[in-house]
Amino acid sequence: MGKITEKLLLEKCTPKNTKLEQVKTLNLSKLGLKSSDLPVPLLSRLRCLEQLDLSGNRLQEMPSGLVLPSLRSLDLTNNEMEDVTTLDTLTTLEDLRMEDNLYITINDNYKLIILLPKLRFYNGKDISDTANHIRYANSENLRKRVLALWETSFSLPDHRTAENLAIVERDFVNAVCHKVKYGPSSLTDYTKWRVEMIAKEHLRSLTEPEEPADTKENCNFPFPAKRKRSASAVKCDVTLNPQKIARVSVQAEDSPHRSSRLQSIPHKAERPISTTPRTHKADQIPATPISGQSKLPVTPRNGLREKQHQSKGDMPLAKRTRKSAKQQRSTEVNETPGKVICTKSQHSSQEPVSLQPLHVLQCHSKQDSPDDFSTQLWACSFQPPLDYNGGVNGATRIVATCGGESVCLIDCETGLVMKKYKVPGEEFFSLAWSTVLMSRKGNVGMRPCSILAAGGKRGLVKLLHPRANMAYGEFRASRKALSILCFSPRQGNLLFTGSYDKNILLWDIGGVDSYYNFKVTRLLVLETTSTPLHFCLPPATPDTHLIAACEKGLHSYNIQLNKDPKKRSEEMEITFPVYEKDTDHDYHTIDGLGFLTNDVVASKSHMQGSIYLWSWNDTQAQRPKKKEVCAVILMELQWSSTDIPYLSLNTCPSKGYVVCGDERGRLWTYHVTDLKANFRSGKAIPATEILAWPLPVRNGQGPVEGPPINSVAMDPELRYLVALSDKNMAVVWIRTESS
Fold this sequence. Notes:
Layout lengths: L5 H7 E2 L10 E3 L12 H4 L7 E3 L19 E3 L19 E3 L8 H10 L5 E2 L2 E2 L1 H26 L8 H18 L8 H20 L5 H5 L13 H9 L10 E2 L8 E2 L5 E2 L86 E7 L15 E6 L15 E6 L2 E6 L4 E7 L5 E12 L6 E11 L3 E6 L4 E7 L5 E6 L6 E6 L3 E6 L12 E7 L4 E5 L8 E6 L2 E6 L8 E2 L3 E4 L1 H5 L8 E6 L4 E6 L4 E6 H5 L7 E3 L1 E7 L10 E4 L4 E5 L5 E5 L17 E3 L5 E2 L3 E2 L5 E6 L5 E6 L4 E6 L4
Parallel strand pairs: 2-3, 3-4, 4-5, 5-6, 8-15, 23-27, 28-32
Antiparallel strand pairs: 1-2, 6-7, 9-19, 10-15, 11-42, 12-13, 13-14, 14-15, 16-17, 17-18, 18-19, 20-21, 21-22, 22-23, 24-25, 25-26, 26-28, 29-30, 30-31, 31-33, 34-35, 35-36, 36-37, 38-39, 40-41, 41-42
GO molecular function, one term: chromatin binding
Pfam family, one: LRR_LRWD1
InterPro entries: Leu-rich_rpt, LRR_dom_sf, LRR_LRWD1_dom, LRWD1, WD40/YVTN_repeat-like_dom_sf, WD40_repeat_CS, WD40_repeat_dom_sf, WD40_rpt
């Protein structure tokens, strides 16, 4: 339907009226309305409106600036509400209904009580006693803690310029959010939100003239500023040694289709590790934020070297047959401290980005042990912005990581582990995001929801809906371990799984209903001769072909569903020049694969010492002549010469970047701006920059030397880069302002 009009409002009011200014009851339910469909100037004319029904729509928030001074009752049942702070202008509300809003949490309920000072009935229940306790007793306890921190650690600057006051406010708010603890851990998000509000109120009371009494009596609760940390505050966070926060991890049920709740309370990783740029001598790590701090403490290169451990157990052979670091061949590159620079294309319209380490997290430890440096982290992927908008303009800063028996969701900006899913006895090797449709109660339409699939040693695919804190199901994809998962970018319900039984399966996982019922159907079986390690679907034709990087080569499959048979072998094998270059070694293990453009593919072989960029279209054009074709190489990029397999690469097409970690914790970054390089010259092009391992420091144990980097991921705009190591450390890098 079109936008709300005056005529429609008069038709939906009760009793009928001819003037908006006299309407008292309005029913706008089940109209499929989105937040953008509510015109603020028109609705603001409803000065006498007392009851408003917006149930059964698709509202995610209330429009900014909407003021309804007489509104007493509001029904937002069965919507998609996410941001309750947008109700802060409706301060006259006494009765509010919010049932069947999937993403509303207990923290949101507490926020509503603060934002709506007259609220007495919530979801049909009288909450007067609870509300009074939250508004007065709870708030007073928090206020005392905030004021105590101010008195002991902060004061107003001598010169009260706007800039100086802003710095004090930033540091004070950052400190109270980290140090003020009160109430159960399930209310951590609310507590941080509330103490931030109290801290800003206190600073205003010290710096602004006191208002007349009659004005104070009628003032509303202030709208909380969006929690977005400045660069300076973020740097302080890296140097902190926060207290360990106890938590209860949710255990997954083994029964099929059994739903379970994910741990959903944001918390710091139990073992935060401070990162240290290697430009100065060692310094002591401060235990509290330091105002104006710009440099992080560092550790000399001859610090303590940790012995490499491998997690074995009953892990599949392919995941545990790495050679010792002592057997690795050395990498011959010309290093400068922290990076290696190569000449850039003169035709580049885009400068290379500059990345700095922001957080080092140790959040996959066995039994939460701070001494666990053996759990291997295998896969990471940024959440797509379709369902969860982690930043402005559709950007995302939430990354999923897996390793050991857990899957974590990390906020790259704050370094918080937002959610954690744990299955005792499992070892996760792969994960993948997708968007499926969820039916809504009352048959009022479908809504997209972002889901996460994870799989590993047990051969089971776990299906998670992180926004709802729900592990809603599982299905068996193989009797052996799963090595790789990949969703179709065009049809979010189609999932490819690769396993150690040397099969690739295509599944239709369908959508879910409001009770999380779902149905899984197997559509295709693709046979391989070895374990698949990576999948890629050509961006231009994701419905017709699948490229599979395997232990014994790179293969292409026809995946069109309208063709028979349903059990298929490879359509062609793609070979590389390195196969013939050195016959003494087997370079058929393709352990890195990704599309840089709709046509250009980046891939590498185990022990190759370089990364190939090649044309998918030109390579595929050779297929009618023969089943085995040689990739049409466009460029060769210099990389580390190492014997360690499964160090995968990643691409960022929007920025023209290829990134791959190595055996020493370094990140080789390539800014590809010119594909006209002459491959026949025989010279590999050096990296644009090699990011050194940040040498994180643990209290009393010295620096941790660089471990192999198993996986890397970049968000679409390359604001963040995440690298997973072989020693239970996830490193978050951030693009600096100079980029």
